[in-house]
Amino acid sequence: MSETRPQFIGEYEDAPIDPKGRLIVPAAFRKALPQGITSLIVAEWFEGCLAAFDPEGWTQLIQELRGLDRSQRQTRQLVRRLAGRAAEVKIDRQGRILIPKKLLDLGEISDRATLSGVIDKIEIWNPDRYNQAQNSADLESVAEELDWL
Fold first, then answer.
1. Rounded distance between C-alpha atoms, residue 8 and residue 81, angstroms
2. Cβ neighbour number for residue 4 with a 10 Å cutoff
3. Residue 117 to residues 3, 7, 38, 112: CA-CA distances in angstroms?
4. Residue 36 in contact with residue 11, Cβ under 8 Å?
5. pTM higher than 0.85 for the full model?
6. 28, 45, 58, 136: least buried by Cβ within 10 Å?
7. What does the angle CA 105 – CA 97 – CA 58 come to, to the nearest 5 degrees?
């Protein structure tokens, strides 16, 4: 893995999305990107959110997907959902990305979003879904189940 891989951390609530579907990527996330990166790949993700990957992170995800057994129906469905619905979006001069309406609809995101840096990607959430997901997860219980403590 490259040392230039971004580390996205932090939470940004109530991020406005304009009627065209443009969302400002927080400055801290833009600064975390390697120099010269001017686009992100946005895809449907788990728990009802969207995820934005830097190009190298997306390439790594694609390599992992290629390593799965394509003879299994679940693998094909996973690849179809993640890659088939993904879109490369340019970061404009104002730091905005234009998220396709189809993706916003999948995430049930309209005029506001919550962005969460989860180390290797940025999750983009419907604010109510995000709060529900966060409130339903007990950090200690999850860590214990994963045998991480």
1. 24
2. 12
3. 18, 8, 18, 17
4. no
5. yes
6. 136
7. 85
Q: Which domains does the chain have, with CATH numbers?
A: 8-145 (3.40.1550.20)
- Whether 97 and 18 have beta carbons less than 8 Å apart is answered as no
Q: How many CA atoms lie within 13 A of 52 on its CB side?
A: 31
The residue type of 145 is: E
pLDDT in tens, the chain (149 residues): 445 688 999 999 999 999 999 999 999 999 999 999 999 999 999 999 999 999 999 999 999 999 999 899 999 999 999 999 999 999 999 999 999 999 999 999 999 999 999 999 999 999 999 999 998 888 888 888 888 86
| φ, ψ of residue 139 in degrees (nearest 5) | -55, -50
Length, in residues, of the chain: 149
27/67 Cα distance (integer angstroms): 34
User: What six digits make up the tokens of 135?
Assistant: 């409130």
Q: Which H or E run contains 111?
A: none
Q: Which two tokens stand for residue 48?
A: 């009802």
